[in-house]
Design brief:
With 208 residues, this protein is mainly alpha-helical. The protein folds into three domains: 104 residues, Orthogonal Bundle (Arc Repressor Mutant, subunit A), CATH 1.10.10; 41 residues, no CATH class; 48 residues. The chain contains ten helices and three strands. Strands 1-2-3 form a three-stranded antiparallel beta sheet. The N and C termini lie far apart (87 Å).
């Protein structure tokens, strides 16, 4: 078999073998693997090059995902699988993903603690309590230890200040001695992910 053509298109290179499209790769890959027109190539080597080019494409895609949006390791794996199914008609194996993940971790591309800190502040700005925040982040696949530790440090706003704002907003000009209204206010603040004990403390401070 012979490499019959290298077609450069949109920063990618399409490699043709025996006048048939074989695979795509980057220009760096072409240089690294010494690919050039009329080079003879064995079938086994071609299969190896295809696998390496797929790994390169997945690595680039994973890096783009990691930089573009806050995502957990599990979410990134799911996104990469969706891309791989569409692009290569196959899933990314756990072993292959581990190798790709090590690549971006070794280069400091992904910092889970930094992401979790940012998401906690994001949820706090939306007036969400720690129970809601913890549940949401764990469902997304973030490390339980990191989430609990950062929430324990209570980064960002004081939850009691937020509870105060929510109580006053929900109560409005209503009668604070109305037990049914009080119960509705409590349910509302609880639904935002705050602890009953903290709500009670704030209520007592507001309406002694």
């Amino acid at each position: 078999m012979v490499i019959s053509q290298l077609l450069y298109k949109n920063e990618r290179v399409q490699v043709f073998v025996d006048n048939k499209y074989s695979f795509s790769c980057t220009t760096d890959f072409v240089l690294e693997q010494r690919l050039f027109k009329d080079r003879e190539i064995e079938e086994q080597e071609l299969e190896t090059l295809k696998k390496l080019s797929e790994d390169e494409a997945l690595r680039i895609r994973l890096i783009n995902y990691a930089y573009s949006k806050f995502s957990s390791k599990r979410e990134l794996y799911d996104k990469l699988n969706t891309y791989s199914n569409k692009k290569f008609r196959k899933k990314v194996s756990k072993d292959d993903f581990s190798k790709l993940w090590k690549f971006i971790e070794d280069r400091g591309i992904y910092d889970e603690e930094k992401i979790v800190k940012a998401l906690i502040k994001h949820y706090q700005e939306k007036k969400k309590g720690n129970r809601f925040i913890e549940s949401s982040l764990l469902q997304k696949g973030y490390s339980k230890d990191i989430v609990k530790e950062l929430l324990k440090e209570n980064i960002g706003e004081d939850p009691k200040e937020t509870i105060k704002e929510l109580i006053e907003k929900k109560l409005g000009k209503g009668d604070k001695s109305d037990m049914k209204l009080k119960a509705r206010v409590y349910r509302y603040v609880l639904s935002r992910g705050f602890d009953y004990e903290d709500i009670s403390k704030v209520w007592k401070l507001l309406y002694k």
